[in-house]
Amino acid sequence: MKDPVDELIEAWQAELPDVLGPAAELIKRVTVLAGELSAATRSVLPEYGLTPAEFDVLVALRRCGTPYRLRPNELSSALLLSTGGTSNIVNRLTGRGLVQREDDPADGRGTLIRLTAEGRRLAEAAVRATSAAHERLFADLPPGVVRAATEALRDVSLPR
Questions:
Q1: 77 vs 26, 111, 128, 150, CA distance in Å?
Q2: Given this model, what pLDDT does residue 84 score?
Q3: How far apart are CA 121 and CA 43, in angstroms?
């Protein structure tokens, strides 16, 4: 069976050989891989009662370290979401007791979004599950191949 990306690239090279540059295959392969990783994440989140957006909020708060809290605008920036979209997600998580709003001691008018102990446990369990799902995607590859791909992608994605 032929690789679908190879077939796609060959078809475009036959139809518009002057359009596709060397990056075309890389772009398609990264897009396909991103879709596979996203699907792996989405496949385990229902076990934890989380949507992808809720998962993103919980893990953003967990990875920021103790005391696991951020200002709403910092959270929105970390997630690349609008403040309104982030607020809706935070409202749902607050209702479930996974995060809470608290006064910002550095700014009397501001608030912080803090991960609760239950939210922290759920975030950690979901991160472990999604990481395991991602590892399964690469389980048949030699570790050297994964390291080489990681290094190549780091080189490609470095800020210019």
A1: 28, 16, 24, 25
A2: 80
A3: 19
